[in-house]
Amino acid sequence: MSAESKASGGDGHMGHVTVTNFAGRAHVALNDKPLRANFRRAMDGLMTKRAAQFPDAADLARLRARGAAIKERALARLPELLEQLETRCTANGIKVHWAETTGDANRIVLDIFRSHGVRTVVKGKSMVSEEMHLNAFLGEHGIEAVESDLGEYIIQLAGEMPSHIVMPCIHKNKGQIGQLFSEHIEGQRYTEDVDELTAAARRVMRAKFAEADAGISGVNFAVAETGTLVLIENEGNGRMSTTLPPLHVAVMGIEKLVETLDDIPPLLALLPRSATGQPITTYVNMITSPRKPGEKDGPQEVHLVLLDNGRTRVYADLELRETLRCIRCGACMNHCPVYARVGGHTYDAVYPGPIGKILTPQIAGLDVAEDLPHASSLCNACVEVCPVKIPIADILVRLRREAVRPSASQAVKGGGHGWTLSEASAWAGWKILNAHPALYRMGTGVLATLGNLIPSSLPPLKAWTGVRAKPKFARKTLHQLARDKGFDDA
Amino acid sequence: MSVAHTSTAAPVSVERPSTVYFFGTCLVDMFYPDAGLAGMELLKREGLRVVFPQGQTCCGQPARNCGFFEEARAVIRAQFAAFPEPWPIVVPSGSCAGMMRVHYPQLFADQPDRAQAEAFAARVYELSWFLVHVLDLKLEDKGEPVTVTWHGSCHSMREMGVTDEPKRLLRSLSNVTLVENPRERECCGFGGTFSVRQPEVSAAMVADKIASVEATGASEMVTGDCGCMMNISGAMEKSGSRVRNRHLAEFLLERSDVR
Q: How many C-beta atoms surround the C-beta of residue A113 within 10 A?
């Protein structure tokens, strides 16, 4: 994702120009009543289902600690584990490719397809392929890629980006989907009957599975010890995409690694329950090799494309590295009061919600997405539910810091982009007042007497008083009252 | 004896002290001093000597949350100087307490005065938690029958580990009926500078919060954080809501005062 490839943005807050323009997009989303209702209903349902899956707080705490430890352990050894994965995969007959940028990854996939004369591809759900904008890229080169996950298929028809990393079309209701299907699927009448709509998509999908020259999938976990690619899904489309066509290309971010097969069960105990409130997904695929001699199914060739796309830079900073623990469950967005109101498209990024707010600025740069770390009340609802305990709120604050005062290591691209003289001066003044108690008492004493005369038209107050009454300064400060009432000072 | 006080920090002592510090917070200081005073009176009524250092100012959270760590640290060092004795520091705000208890050690992790920050953080208590676990406060209700609902602040719940403590105090009052808000745990949309950087999202959040409070049918919303209260009561006033807002300390003191 580059600044150039994004839609042109408007003015961000406080005079900064941010490409993401969260406030402007939020304005549109907040006034879209069906959209808000769709998200609110869906997120409420997901929160309830997740809570039902984790009835025991102590069990959940232990499981989350274990999940975090597994990912932390793997990340600590990431370089050597990646080499181990390549060695194992190669030994198993899976061809491994390394891509530094999404452009590199796209070209690798295209080269594989061209050398096999591929014209039609079925795709399982993959967020990394969204990062690559792979469908569009293949389309430009004459290869049709059809999403086989129902939600992804729907947004592909609509020409939209996913609005949620697990439930990509959660922003749409059945009426909107019925409309889309009647327009795009030949012979399909308008209906809001969910079974009929699903059957229609299934008809389309079956034909595509039969004719596809190749399948593309993502990877939920890759096991370094065995060279196994773990892929979980509910519709069976992932299994079809990875077994039916003669060629399978899997794409994954380099952080999706775990050390051993034993690491998989605890993570599977966390991921579907955190994501959709299911005890386990309908399908758990473990792919270790292409079809072996004598086997009746499976692709003749399997390729694995490992994508960096800025992850190495994230990895280099020990605090920011925790971002890479993410197992893409989406619980953070399901529980986010901001996401629930504005929906995924407001973030104008592949990864929306809290995880997107820390991931997007690190991958695209703070010059592109400086406003995202500020689009949070720091309520910590995401931190509370994250199955691998990513300190999202702390990382948001760290990114806010990088935006105004970049670290010596230039940990994040576009650091310093958020600095303005007006804000820096305001905090300098705040510091002088609050670091000197006598000045503070004098200042607050003046505010107690005259503060209520400050006009509401002053910029920060103006934003506040749009929907709220002006705060009223008390006639005496607590400092004064404590002294009056004889409370000791020491 | 010590118990796990927060989900994110080490356990703290629940020994009953003879003297406590009171950190009023800058919002209470300027806008809700009666709430602060009520907290101090409650502690004093339980026989504690309550010390209010005149040198205290702000916990530093606003600057920290905006990424201005050096400015925050300068202000935090002024708090270290203002609270020199090893007494517990009681705070009538989960958010400011969370800043002091959870984020001071982080902010000073690479600073020469790291040990001081950690020792300070370990002495910080949220008021309702202190009243319940340290003082085992018993209240006699002298007020008229009233129906109230509770608003728990994000940081009191998720940084300070305050869960049922304030509601336990409210339920112990015989004439108070506490009705639970199903959306109690959802943020009210304040978030400090968030409310002015993303005013429309913040406005949508507080509007939903008010609707959920009004749906409880309570005539009064009690809370333990004046940041939330400034946001919610300000929006209630603007929208003409008739629900009254008060800080827990003020509510408890008024209903159980022995004057």
A: 23
Position A20 scores a pLDDT of 74
- Residue A237 pLDDT: 96
pTM, two decimals, is 0.95
CA dihedral A157, A160, A161, A166 (to 10 degrees): -50
Find the angle CA(A60)-CA(A61)-CA(A65) to the nearest 5 degrees: 115
**In this predicted structure, what is the pLDDT of residue A458?**
86
Q: Report the gap between the CA of B117 and the closest CA in chain A (Å).
A: 16
CATH of B139-256, one of 3.30.428.10, 3.30.200.20, 3.40.190.10, 3.40.50.10700: 3.40.50.10700
Position A294 scores a pLDDT of 93
Same domain as A400, residue A467: no
Range of the domain at A362: 13-51+329-404
Please report whether residue A181 resides in a domain: yes
| A361 located within any domain | yes
Q: What is the pLDDT of residue A459?
A: 81
Domain count for chain A: 3
A8 inside domain: no
Which residue numbers in chain B have pLDDT < 70?
Answer: 1-11, 257-259
* Partner A contacted by B80 (CB < 8 A): no
- The residue from A246, A278, A309 where one domain ends is A309
- Report residue B241 as tokens: 């809501």
Weakly modelled stretches of chain A, pLDDT under 50: 1-17
Asked if the structure places residue A352 within a domain, the reply is yes
Show me where the domains of chain B are located: 2-133, 139-256
Q: Which is nearest to B155 in space by CA: B188, B195, B204?
A: B188
Closest by CA to B96, choosing from B132, B121, B70, B73, is: B121
Do the beta carbons of residue B94 and residue B159 sit within 8 Å?
A: yes
Q: Across the interface, do B26 and A474 touch by the CB < 8 Å criterion?
A: no
| Candidate from A27, A371, A400 with C-beta closest to B66 | A400
What is the distance in angstroms between the Cα of A47 and the nearest Cα belonging to chain B? 12
The tally of CA atoms less than 13 A away on the side-chain side of residue B186 is: 28
Asked whether residue A113 falls in the same domain as residue A164, the answer is: yes
- Please, where are the H alpha helices in A54-189? 57-76, 78-92, 102-115, 127-132, 134-140, 150-158, 174-184
Distance from CA of A368 to the nearest CA of B (A): 17
B149 three-state secondary structure: strand
Would you state the pLDDT for residue B14? Answer: 85
The Cα-based distances of B167 to A317, B162, B173, B222, B248 in angstroms read 42, 10, 10, 10, 10
> Which element (helix H / strand E) includes A273?
helix A264-275
Q: How far is Cα B223 from Cα A454, in angstroms, rounded to an integer?
A: 27
Dist. CA B28–CA B36, nearest whole Å: 6
Predicted pLDDT at B11: 62
Query: What does each C-alpha distance from A108 to A95, A164, A304, B249 come to in angstroms?
Result: 12, 27, 10, 64
**Single-letter amino acid code for the residue at A406:** P
What residues of chain B lie within 8 A of the CB of A375, using their CB? 194, 197-198, 201
DSSP run (H or E) holding A251: strand A247-253
Q: Are residues A134 and A276 in the same domain?
A: yes
